[in-house]
Design brief:
Blueprint lengths: L12 E4 L2 E4 L6 E2 L9 E6 L6 E3 L4 E17 L2 E8 L3 E4 L6 E3 L5 E9 L1 H8 L11 E4 L2 H15 L6 H19 L1 H4 L9 H13 L7 H7 L4 H12 L3 H18 L4 H7 L5 H12 L3 H20 L17
Antiparallel strand pairs: 1-2, 3-4, 4-10, 5-9, 6-7, 6-8, 6-9, 6-10, 8-11
């Protein structure tokens, strides 16, 4: 399999309103129109663009090269704001919390790279995954900045250094991200994480208040941290953001309640969703199906199980269900 045969998307994309859309139809620079053989790269600015709430279905790495860009990360009942200036680096992992970019109010230029799994596999020549990464929001990282600048420079010149150069830079970026920010690799490092008792207090509070609009400030108070420090230490500890952790817990409980036969509107209310539509949208983000589709899949499984049982002629012993005594 060659890199050319699995070229990633012709445009860097994300999720807006539940749909996968291009970041811009008019990037200042794109590797898609060149012989570039590495990760998809684009250069963006704010020209003609409106504010947008952006979801991350791929890992993206960005470097602000000019001006500044303001954005906020949409956590439950709380907006954590950031200002990225020239030289700032961001690593937004796949599945990261929805991010609101104030494009209309910003003047900036940025290099953005999308890490597509298919292209990574083609570059590595084997099955390769970076795995879960801890978010890096508005940090100074000269290694990432240098790699992205070299990549953009080669693309801008029409890739005169040949395919190996682009492949090497892209693999160097992937290796660096894995080595520095992989959740698995970082478990053995002295990164600031919650102690066992701190983590338990935070989890207990979240589980006891899933029906409430949890704020980052409220969660941070539990362990006496500022919201920003809490956000980073939580990500280091759990390998995901507070918003994603809470959403996953709500969806897990929603599955149990659907299995028990509760109405969807009741489940939405019990688990702190704004309404049934909000519940359905968030459930789909995590599971890939709506609550109704999930319920129907359970019914289909029960029918298949029933049909198998009716056709079985040998003696057998049934296990009690969750709703039967003895489970």
């Amino acid at each position: 399999m060659t890199v050319a045969s699995v070229r990633a998307r012709e445009q860097i994309t994300g999720i807006v309103g539940g749909q996968i859309v291009a970041a811009t139809d008019a990037p200042l620079l794109t590797s898609a129109t060149t012989p570039w053989s590495g990760f998809l790269l684009e250069k963006h600015d704010a020209t003609g663009r409106q504010d947008v709430c952006w979801g991350w279905h791929r890992t993206h790495v960005a470097l602000i090269t000019k001006g500044s860009l303001t954005f906020r990360i949409n956590e439950p009942a709380n907006n954590l704001s950031f200002l990225a200036k020239a030289g700032s680096v961001c690593v937004f992992p796949s599945g990261f919390a929805e991010t609101h970019f104030s494009l209309a109010e910003s003047e900036f230029e940025a290099i953005a790279v999308e890490l597509d799994p298919a292209r990574l596999e083609a570059l590595a020549g084997r099955k390769a995954v970076i795995g879960a990464l801890t978010p890096q929001i508005v940090v100074e990282d000269t290694e990432i900045a240098g790699l992205l600048k070299k990549m953009a420079s080669d693309v801008a010149q029409g890739c005169p250094s040949g395919p190996l150069y682009g492949q090497s830079l892209s693999l160097a970026l992937a290796s660096y991200l894995w080595d520095r920010f992989s959740v698995k690799r970082q478990k053995g490092r002295l990164l600031r994480q919650f102690s066992g008792s701190e983590a338990r207090r935070v989890m207990d509070y979240i589980h006891a208040n899933l029906d409430h609009a949890l704020s980052l400030s409220d969660l941070a108070e539990i362990v006496q941290l500022s919201p920003r420090h809490f956000f980073r230490i939580f990500s280091n500890t759990f390998g995901t953001t507070p918003h994603r952790y809470i959403l996953d817990e709500r969806v897990a409980q929603a599955k149990e309640l659907i299995t028990k036969g509760l109405m969807l509107v009741e489940i939405a209310t019990q688990l702190g969703f704004a309404n049934q539509s909000h519940f359905s949208g968030e459930f789909r983000k995590v599971t890939g199906m709506t609550p109704g589709q999930f319920r129907r899949s359970l019914s289909n499984q029960e029918r298949l199980s029933s049909a198998d049982t009716e056709g079985h002629t040998e003696p057998f012993t049934t296990l009690p269900s969750r709703n039967q005594p003895g489970w």
